[in-house]
């Protein structure tokens, strides 16, 4: 837990509503809470805190983990809405991520708004590119140095791309060198997650089929959870993060062993 800034203790800790409001604020600030620390800070039993966390988890605020809870991902809204959020951060992440590419590689660009910026930042070199994202395919239209395959299947408006059986069958025939995987959340314990079950299954297939998995992740996704698991962090070849990511989160990620690549500062 980040202890650099502390929220004021609620006035009446005997009321679950006051405690839970404090926990919500702490989750928003730190992304994670520990039951023992909460009990000590609020002067109540750990049983009371565990009940609070169960109720907050049931309402979708957090996910229970051993010893406490972790915030749920803020990654909501349609693809179109999300494509206008944190654009400058995504552009910087993309500029760092494309440095990993080499001429002649087979690249899979998974659907996602950060990956859309990666598509726009692709260097002028011969690449074979496959994607299930319609906006990404559109962004590559006219760039004739790329051999582009658009994976078919059922289009999901929430992710701006195709998923499902038809898309999975096409991907099963592919062996990309590198995959830029889209994600909704990243956590050292819970790994990579997303908010849609069918999308999670598609991403798990990508992890199996691709030689390298690279994630470019904005700050608000770090240390959060999603309803559906994709893969543990140890399956990730490189995690591209922002230069101003919370130091304690960076330290946790470094401790997990996943190689980090930092984007340039804004």
TrEMBL record:
PROSITE patterns: HTH_DEOR_2 (PS51000). Gene3D superfamilies: Winged helix-like DNA-binding domain superfamily/Winged helix DNA-binding domain. One of its GO terms (molecular function) is DNA binding. Residues 16-71 form the HTH deoR-type domain. Keywords: DNA-binding, Repressor, Transcription, Transcription regulation. It holds the Pfam family HTH_DeoR. The keyword Nucleus does not apply. InterPro entries: Carb_Metab_HTH_regulators, DeoR-like_C, DeoR_HTH, NagB/RpiA_transferase-like, WH-like_DNA-bd_sf, WH_DNA-bd_sf. It comes from the Bacteria. This is DeoR/GlpR family DNA-binding transcription regulator. It comes from Vogesella oryzagri.
């Amino acid at each position: 837990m980040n202890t650099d800034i502390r929220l004021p203790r609620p006035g009446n800790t005997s009321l679950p509503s006051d405690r839970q409001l404090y926990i919500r604020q702490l989750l928003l600030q730190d992304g994670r809470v520990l039951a023992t620390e909460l009990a000590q800070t609020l002067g109540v039993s750990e049983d009371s805190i565990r009940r609070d966390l169960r109720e907050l988890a049931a309402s979708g605020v957090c996910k229970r983990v051993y010893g406490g809870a972790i915030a749920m991902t803020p990654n909501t809204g349609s693809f179109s809405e999300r494509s206008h959020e944190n654009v400058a951060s995504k552009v910087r992440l993309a500029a760092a991520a494309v440095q990993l590419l080499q001429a002649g590689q087979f690249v899979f660009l998974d659907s996602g708004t950060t990956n859309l910026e990666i598509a726009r930042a692709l260097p002028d070199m011969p690449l074979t590119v496959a994607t299930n994202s319609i906006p990404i395919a559109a962004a590559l239209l006219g760039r004739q140095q790329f051999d582009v395959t658009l994976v078919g299947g059922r289009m999901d408006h929430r992710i701006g791309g195709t998923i499902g059986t038809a898309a999975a069958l096409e991907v099963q025939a592919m062996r990309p060198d590198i995959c830029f995987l889209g994600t909704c959340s990243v956590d050292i314990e819970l790994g990579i997650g997303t908010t849609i079950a069918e999308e999670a299954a598609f991403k798990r297939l990508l992890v199996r089929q691709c030689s390298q998995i690279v994630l470019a992740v904005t700050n608000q996704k770090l240390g959060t959870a999603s309803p559906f698991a994709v893969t543990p962090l140890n399956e990730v070849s490189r995690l591209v993060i922002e230069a101003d990511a919370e130091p304690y989160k960076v330290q946790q990620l470094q401790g997990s062993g996943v190689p980090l690549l930092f984007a340039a500062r804004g």
